[in-house]
Amino acid sequence: MNERKLEKSREEMTTSGAIRPALLFVISAPSGAGKSTLCRAVLDRFPDLVYSVSSTTRSPRSGEQNGKDYHFITKDEFEKGMARGRWAEWAEVHDHYYGTSADFLNGELSGGRDILLDIDIQGTRKILQRYPDAVTIFIMPPSLETLKSRLQSRGTDSPEAIAVRLQNAAEEMAQKDLYRHIIINDRLTDAVGELIVIFEKYRS
Fold this sequence. Notes:
Oligomer: single chain
Number of domains: 1
Strand content: 15-25%
Shape: globular
């Protein structure tokens, strides 16, 4: 192919949408709704997808690894980051800070890599202010009773903590219309399939 034809081919690819900008996918859910399991399923299906590891001031749970599940940092370090504008979004949840690095997001998106971001509703609102084209997805339990049963079966929270999580879940579910897509995680296999279809639609 000569240079003129090659340049024309590049122009056609650009105008036809064959070359698309990198995408930022945002997934949120009440605690216990199965978000982590669904995110792992998406990452297994799309190994080139970049997972944004959030930073938090809470202590690691059993089995969690620093740098893989979260970047575990001190409250002082987090608040210094707030003063420096380090976070693309941050929120205080259950008395702990959670935040996403702005430099990380901008670097990956500029490099043409799609990102999966797992954050709460407060964080999503802030992300949409900076990245209004983000693809937002909300994962819901079939009911609060089902969610309560799931939280109890985890065995990681006291009855008082579960009550707080259920109250927060009800408030979060009332804001589901903030999101472009809503998935009800009743049967896990169905929810995984629905989520993968959404990713395939935007990434094709």
